[in-house]
Write a structure and sequence with these properties.
mainly alpha; 2 helices; single chain
Length: about 90
């Protein structure tokens, strides 16, 4: 049996994630949307290309707590990426 890493960060309760669409798909189901958002942000500020599918979420932890429960983690990744780009453009 594989060990599932569980996110314990407070971002799980961030109101930002309440507006994400629900997701009950396969691969990225139950991935932490907060960690996905942070990953997208990190990729953008470090000049990495934006991922085109949810396989980028393979290493982030799972979460079913707070506002990230059943939310689309890949959408969170894309929003984090776009937010970082918008900050860079505004500077």
């Amino acid at each position: 049996m594989a060990y599932l890493q569980i996110c314990k960060k407070l971002h799980r309760y961030g109101i930002l994630f309440k507006s994400l669409p629900e997701y009950q798909g396969t691969f990225s189901r139950h991935k932490c949307a907060g960690c996905a958002y942070e990953l997208g942000y990190f990729h953008a500020i470090n000049g990495k290309p934006k991922a085109t599918n949810d396989s980028v979420l393979a290493e982030i932890p799972h979460s079913q707590a707070g506002h990230v429960r059943h939310k689309d983690a890949f959408t969170a990744y894309k929003e984090g990426y776009e937010f970082a780009l918008s900050i860079a453009k505004a500077s």
